[in-house]
Amino acid sequence: MLCEVMSAAALLISLIALFQSKRVTLEVVEKKLAKKREKVRKRYVLVATVTHEPEKVEKECLDEAVKSAVRELYGTIGLALSKPKVVYVDEVTKAAVVRTTLEGVKILASALIGPREACGTTVNLIPLRAFGTLASAREKLPKLNKYVKDLK
Questions:
Q1: How sure is the predictor about 39, in pLDDT bands with cuts at 50, 70 and 90?
Q2: Over the stretch 54-96, which tens digit does the pLDDT of each residue have?
Q3: Contact 86, 98 (CB under 8 A)
Q4: What is the distance between the alpha carbons of residues 26 and 20, in angstroms, rounded to a whole number?
Q5: What phi, psi does 41 have (nearest 5°)?
Q6: Residue 8 to residues 16, 18, 131, Cα–Cα distance (Å)
Q7: How do 95-101 and 115-118 pair as beta strands?
């Protein structure tokens, strides 16, 4: 009789220890996933700008043109989802790098179709490719020069 009580108590203690150990590992995994979800993942979209005028287009004008294009097509919700911002403009190739969120890459690419108004000049913005870092997007700019000549 005493052996049965002892074995039942040992079984109960081992089950409690098992459930507590499982709960601890589950909490640790949930915390890691929650921390990873907090980070906003960014993408950098390489955009070719084609203008009829030889003058350069400023960074602020392009930024406003990109934001207005997204706002026109998707509204303020699409603008809040994509968070577009022109971070780099190359003077030689007249290309720009636009930072956006991971979810906003397709929103941005579809919104840029068609001519846009930027500082009084008509600009065609052509999204070419998305990159994970700004450095990799800048690295492709010299190779872009031969493709831009074909567009003009």
A1: confident
A2: 677 788 888 888 898 888 888 888 888 888 999 988 877 788 8
A3: yes
A4: 10
A5: -90, 130
A6: 12, 15, 61
A7: unpaired
Question: SS3 of 19, please?
Answer: helix
Q: What is the enclosing helix (H) or strand (E) of 78?
A: helix 59-82
Alpha-carbon distance 122 to 92, whole Å? Answer: 19
pTM, 2 dp: 0.68
What pLDDT shows up at residue 26? 47
d(CA 89, CA 50) in angstroms, rounded, equals 13
Per-residue model confidence (pLDDT) at position 78? 84
The count of other CB atoms within 10 Å of the CB of residue 3 is: 7
Backbone angles phi, psi at 15, to 5 degrees: -65, -40
Residues in the chain: 152
pLDDT tens per residue, range 98-112: 999 888 888 888 888
Are the C-beta atoms of residues 101 and 83 closer than 8 Å to each other?
Answer: yes
